[in-house]
Design goal:
Blueprint (H helix, E strand, L loop, with lengths): L11 E9 L4 E11 L3 E12 L1 H14 L6 E6 L2 H8 L8 H12 L2 E6 L7 H20 L14 E2 L6 E2 L14 H14 L5 E5 L6 E5 L11 H10 L1
Parallel strand pairs: 1-4, 4-5
Antiparallel strand pairs: 1-2, 2-3, 3-6, 3-7, 8-9
């Protein structure tokens, strides 16, 4: 549905949430991005070993990345740590890498952070929670894969982004749309593995978590070719 009221001067309404099965443990993040015209996009991803706070921060980062630089964004989260650290200047004791990434995304946009009560009456928050929980459960399932396919500790297991669609006026959590994200992800990986050449393997970027193709013997290649990932990796080295 189109934005009204306090949302009307914003280009995007973004709901984010994180979940963790155990803390630390397998976790997931979920994002619902709604445009001014009511069209919506969902994103989610997981990590086999993480914390709830890292997933909350990752959700906010990925939610902003789903909007173009310069956009006016209202980001809603049920994480008081996230919202009050930004709005009230709470001390950043941990997860400096994610706070730095979040700062880069928010300064590239006009962002207002707003706290929303979790598990209450907001169906968009409920959908973000559902996406995060589904991603965390998928991270548990993927934890049983062969050792050669496991990611580096803390790397993301991203899932495909859904195509924009009209978002109907929700009447409750049971009516919210569900997408077969996990099955799409598995099909894409299976197709890629069938096209690998001799000496190639699928690796997972230690920075952004996306899969990329590398030489099997080149263990030093831990990040993908994206410029942002290369910049971070080379600064650290």
């Amino acid at each position: 549905m189109p934005m009204t009221g306090e949302r009307s001067n914003r280009d995007f309404l973004v709901y984010t949430d994180g979940a963790c099965i155990g803390n630390p443990g397998p976790g997931g993040w979920g994002v619902l991005v709604i445009r001014r015209d009511g069209a919506a996009v969902e994103k989610s991803g997981g990590c086999r070993s993480t914390t709830n706070n890292r997933m909350e921060l990752t959700a906010a980062i990925e939610g902003l990345r789903a909007t173009p630089p310069g956009a006016r964004v209202l980001l809603r989260s049920d994480s008081q740590l996230l919202v009050k650290t930004i709005n009230a200047g709470w001390k950043r004791n941990k997860n400096g890498d994610l706070w730095d990434a979040l700062d880069r995304e928010r300064i590239a946009r006009n962002v207002v952070f707003e706290w929303v009560k979790g598990h209450d009456l907001d169906p968009h928050n409920a959908r973000a929670d559902e996406l995060a929980t589904q991603a965390a459960k998928l991270a548990v399932e993927q934890g049983s894969v062969d050792t050669a396919q496991r990611s580096a500790p803390g790397s993301l297991l991203t899932q495909p982004q859904a195509a924009p669609k009209a978002l109907p006026r929700p009447q409750g959590r049971a009516n919210l749309p569900r997408l077969p994200i996990a099955s799409l992800h598995r099909e894409a990986l299976a197709s890629m593995r069938s096209m690998l050449r001799e000496g190639e393997a699928i690796a997972r970027c230690a920075q952004c978590g996306r899969e990329f193709v590398r030489r099997v013997l080149d263990r030093s290649e831990t990040v993908c070719s994206l410029v942002a990932c290369q910049v971070v990796a080379r600064r650290r080295s």
